[in-house]
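In practice, a research group might receive sequence data for several interacting partners and want a quick structural hypothesis before committing to experiments. The following worked case mirrors that situation: the sequences arrive first, and a predicted assembly follows.
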Amino acid sequence: MNELRKQNFIWMVMFLAVAVVFGAGCGKKTDKQSAEQSKAAEKPAEEMQAPSTKPITEERTFYGFENDLQGWEIPAWAEGKNDYVAETVSQSKDFASEGTASMKVMANFPGGNWTAALVEIQQYLDISFYRAIRVDVYVPADAPEGLKASLILTVGNNWKFVEMNQNIPLSPGKWVTITGNIEPGSYDWKRVVPDTEFGQDVRKIAVRVMSNRQPQYNGPIYIDNIRVGK
Amino acid sequence: MKKLLLGVLLAGLVLSPMVSEAADEVLFSFEEGMDGWDIPDWAYEKPDHVQREINMSDKVASNGKKSLEMMTEFPGGSWAGAIIEVMQYMDWTDYTELACDIYLPEGAPEGLKGKMILTVGDTWKWVEMSRDFALVPGEWVKVSASLAPGSIDWRKVQVDDAFRKDVRKIDIRVTSNGKPAYKGPVYIDNIRVSKP
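A structural hypothesis for the assembly, expressed as tokens:
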């Protein structure tokens, strides 16, 4: 019995000795590793580029709807979906924020549930030369308060659906401008912080007007002057 | 004086359509023949390219009395395209728009789309229009793209004078993005460039 204890004790001592030697060897840094780590510690953390705060001074209208809808439509995927309530889209001269015509979307928000009217264009665009994308949205004076609007981009090879972080409240009887900053570091987009490639491969632009349950509205929404600015 | 004014007014009324037509130059109207348009060889080898043959046709026309008829077989269920092209060196420096008219017979399904594709420059760069135009069964649809410097109508290219100066091919492609199945003709006519 004593012999057995003695043997166990010897094994334990040997194991500890091996563990100490092995542990010390593995943890030892080479000169090169040490130099790299200390260099990294000295280097300040890379800062995320922030969008410029300078005013946008130059704009270019991509879609002014002066002659036709320029390819804007209610997408086929929205047809037959109960929560997508855009019914028709047409060119209109009722109201315009630029020129004399705009895009008129007839929508029927029933209230009680989240519903949205969405129109889009599928077009390959490189808007990386610009800092922001903008659209003007108008609901007539007799529309209820509470409708909100946002821009949605579909970008890149995997057709990533990128929504704006915020839905902007519409103001009945007034044109409201929705602006999405596309500069690297912008926080205007949900789950995506744009990098330098973000604007290079835009494949769809969508404008979505939504009712988050309360506003009930059956009538027109006018969209105009979809533009980029720098 | 009144007669002179009336004369000027009448002359203006008579001449104004001629002036606006003069801004367009029709490149291909298929009145005398197919003008060199053909199905590219490579498209015969691709199973997703479904053009079968092209012919002149006098069934419909948007300019003159004849058009180009492209017979197609879109199976539905997967992307498929029908394409025709012409190879010709063209300098469109003075022009600001390229357009063509495409017609689908009544009874064809909705959902087919058309666009033009150019091959430009020494590198024979393939430049597609940045968007497709939805074709409407029973109607001529104008498919157009700006050639003006800075145009956003062409994909992955900076449109400038160099782009317009050395165009080597025009392709016209009709596509089904999976849904529409269609076997039948597509008519193409009045391929033109216009000045501002």
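Before designing any experiment, note the following. The two ends of chain A are 87 Å apart (CA to CA). The domain at 59-229 of chain A is CATH 2.60.120.260 (Jelly Rolls).
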